[in-house]
Amino acid sequence: MSAVKKVLEKRNNVNCLIPSRKNSALHEILALFDITRILLPPTRITSTSATSIDMVCTNFDTDKIKIEVINTDLSDHTGQFCHIQVKLKTYNPYCDSKAIQHQQPPEF
Fold first, then answer.
1. Other CB atoms closer than 10 Å to residue 80's CB: what's the count?
2. Which of 18, 56, 83, 98 could be bridged to 66 by S-S, CB 3.0 to 4.6 A?
3. Residue 34: which residues within 8 A CB-CB, separation 6 or more?
4. pTM tops 0.70, yes or no
């Protein structure tokens, strides 16, 4: 597994709800990079169709990612909101300062 963790959200117009050559090819390409497409419910809903053409892909353990598909009322596409359960490294900030109130600009 890759040391760098990735989450990709993209609209790709390959419907994951219907088996197809394009769908298989996409999964094979993602697998080359240890990336999995997380299956989503329909993300584009019209009066005549419901397709899942938006995607969330990752190389995280999929049990660490929770996805909410939400209606945005902006278009016929839903929104995807990802919760990623990871522990982030903390770094102690380093700050250095110098008083310049009595110095002339060329001296600092």
1. 18
2. 83
3. 1, 2, 59
4. no
Distance in Å from the first CA to the final CA of the chain: 49
Give the pLDDT confidence of 49-74 residue by residue, as tens digits: 888 888 888 888 888 889 888 888 87
Q: What is the distance between the alpha carbons of residues 40 and 31, in angstroms, rounded to a whole number?
A: 18
Give all strands (DSSP E) within the chain, no chain letters: 7-11, 36-38, 44-45, 50-51, 54-58, 65-70, 79-84
Q: Which residues of the chain have pLDDT under 70?
A: 1-3, 97-108
Tell whether the torsion through CA atoms of 61, 58, 51 and 15 is positive or negative.
Answer: negative
Cα separation, 52 vs 38, whole angstroms: 11
Instruction: Report the run of H or E that residue 39 belongs to, with start and end.
Output: none
